[in-house]
Amino acid sequence: MVLGTRRVRRSTRIAIIAIGTDLAIAHLIDTVLTQEDPMEALDLTRRRGLVVGIANEHSLAWSAAQHFRNAGADLALTYLNDKAKPFVEPLARQISAPIFLPCNVSEPGQLEALFEAIRQQWGRLDFLFHAIAWARKQDLHGRLIDCSADGFAESMLVSCHSFIHMAKLAEPLLDKGGSLMTLSYYGAEKVVDHYNVMGPVKAALEASVRYLAHELGPKAIRVNAISAGAVKTRAASGIEHFDELLNETVQKAPLRRTIDACEVGRAALLLASDYATAITGEILYVDAGFHIEGMVFH
Ligand SMILES: NC(=O)c1ccc[n+]([C@@H]2O[C@H](COP(=O)([O-])OP(=O)(O)OC[C@H]3O[C@@H](n4cnc5c(N)ncnc54)[C@H](O)[C@@H]3O)[C@@H](O)[C@H]2O)c1
């Protein structure tokens, strides 16, 4: 990838001190060297990626898509259904996505059709960004103890198993290895008030990341999750008392602030790139450090 693809001219001023035998002479020589050095750059030129989970311009997946595209990748984007399409279509156009298809992971066959379209058009894939989660309103707002088996299974299917399913469909296309990414939240590992059913579902997603990383590692396919801090998005609006959660972050996080979607996008770009070729099975926190704190006195 990356090194050597962009070059920068560098002027260096060097001082050479020469010491003679008869007399010690210090020569200060100013030399201007002009040389070509490789500049570090996150470059996804000629890479092809799939981004699933854009609902609108506030979506974390949209930020990731913009960063992938700005780094040179070609992207396949999806929309949930006809109702969602008008919000996502202008975004797909903005980044000239050559593949733009519906994808409701609860609809049998839609994921298969999406991957078949990618196979036909590109023949292969380099990375995949999964940013979808869903739970029935009564389960999201109610106690976990009251969650029905059906509701639990539905949330697991959409928010967790869909990532496993996508990994399976992507595996044959990732012929040169690649990067699979998903989004999690701190509520996977510690109790967060009002996160309810999504807590155990995200815990299962994080465990799936590790098992998939283990299984796909020998094919140079990396699997990671970004555990993002709270950001106001459409999905976040379904969580009760979300503003309190944001306030708590500002109070407690080492950086004393919330994060923005762009910071998630940048981390996603890193994980998709060759700068992360040795990172797999990881939960990468992009949360202003919130997760390291235990007891904090305000
Ligand atoms: N916003 C946050 O504070 C935050 C923090 C940590 C993790 N996350 C996670 O980030 C991911 C993206 O959420 P977001 O905050 O960007 O909100 P968002 O509402 O923009 O994105 C959620 C996406 O899930 C999609 N989706 C829901 N059901 C689906 C289905 N059956 N099939 C296909 N797609 C479906 C929606 O269409 C939408 O695009 C989610 O996994 C969420 O849990 C969000």
Describe what you observe in this structure.
- This protein has 298 residues and is of the alpha/beta class.
- It is 34% helix and 18% strand.
- It has helices at residues 60-70, 85-94, 110-121, 137-141, 149-170, 198-216, 242-252, 261-272, and strands spanning 7-14, 31-38, 48-52, 74-79, 99-102, 127-130, 178-184, 221-228, 283-286.
- The strands form two sheets. The protein has a seven-stranded parallel β-sheet with strand order 5-4-3-6-7-8-9, sandwiched between helices. A two-stranded antiparallel sheet has the order 1-2.
- Residues 1-34 have low confidence and may be disordered.
- The chain binds nicotinamide-adenine-dinucleotide.
Structural class: alpha/beta
Please give the count of helices.
Answer: 8
Level of helix content?
A: 25-40%
Poorly predicted ranges? 1-34
CATH level-4 homologous superfamily of the largest domain: NAD(P)-binding Rossmann-like Domain
Rg computed from alpha carbons, rounded to a whole number of angstroms: 23 Å
Order of helices and strands: EEEHEHEHEHHEHEHHE
Just give the CATH class of the largest domain: Alpha Beta
Separation of the first and last Cα atoms: 46 Å
Instruction: Name the CATH architecture of the largest domain.
Output: 3-Layer(aba) Sandwich
The tally of beta strands, per DSSP, is 9
Mean of all residue-level pLDDT scores: 90
Q: What portion of residues belong to β-strands?
A: 15-25%
Q: What spatial order of strands do you see in the largest sheet?
A: 5-4-3-6-7-8-9
